[in-house]
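Forum: Protein Structure Q&A
Topic: Joint prediction for protein chains with partners

I've read a bunch of threads here and the consensus seems to be that you should model interacting components together rather than docking separate models afterwards. I'd like to see that in practice. Below is the full input, 278 residues plus whatever partners are listed. Could one of the regulars post the assembled result?
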Amino acid sequence: TSTPAQPEQILFEERHLRFISSLGKGNFGSVELCRYDPLGDNTGELVAVKKLQPNKKSTLEDFKKEVNILSIFECDYIVKYKGVCYSTGRLSMSLVMEYLPYGSLIGYLESYRHVNTRRMLLFASQICTGMEYLQTLRYVHRDLAARNILVANESGKADFLHLIFKYAPESINESRFSHKSDVWSFGVVLHELFCYCDTNYNPKRLYMQEIGHYVQSPSISMHLENILKNNWRLPAPLNCPPKVYCLMKQCWAYDFEERPCFSSLGKQIETIVQEERE
Ligand SMILES: COc1ccc(-c2cccc3nc(Nc4ccc(N5CCN(C)CC5)cc4)nn23)cc1
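Posted by a regular:
Agreed with the consensus. Here's the joint model:
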């Protein structure tokens, strides 16, 4: 049998990757803004470089898996993979991706507070399309959250990336993830959107208010599971159209089989957009 075709490994030479700034850190490693400038005249393109932490538990295998997965995705709503960079000295590997200048949805909503319902719904609809695409590839995201959603450009085309208060009940205590648990997380992202990612109303804070701030970490998930089982849900955001809150509640059906799929959510969002127009 022939060996599986290697994704086109576009090699970025480390010596031409000029560090500009740090874009963010996570348990995966760090992401830096760099200019790939082989001509050395600052005309090179800006790229987002995700450095793999070799010491972290994520291994070379994880890296190769991520490269293979990302390089297959062909979707307007998933960040574009450009290639890899193997640094000779430090034996580290980096993932090179397109750079999205507007940063995360959280940062965007904090600075552009005038974002109206229509634009929010546009974001929601685009996130839905991206999630539908992942589902066709049978890829479960597991970390859909506003912090992992990147805004691609002024037109508000939401891009998102892959990656506890976002989790569906079955994920919290059975670690079961599915497209339907991603739908639950999508409901939480909708909530963040319509709260403008306001830290006073972020999911963690609202859940902890209900559970009790005194509760310490290991038992938080048990308390979370209890309030969800007792049908408590995140409250409707200020000025949130009732139909949008109704969508969130559908995503938060305790029984994952009762949750809508992304294509149904997309259609319902389109309907609300039409009604908002009239
Ligand atoms: C968890 O941290 C990150 C950071 C960056 C990325 C990432 C991956 C793949 C492509 C990509 N494009 C951008 N753009 C971007 C632009 C601005 C900012 N911020 C500017 C303002 N600063 C205060 C915060 C960062 C962050 C990311 N970030 N980014 C993913 C996760």
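Residues 155-163 have pLDDT under 50 and may be disordered.
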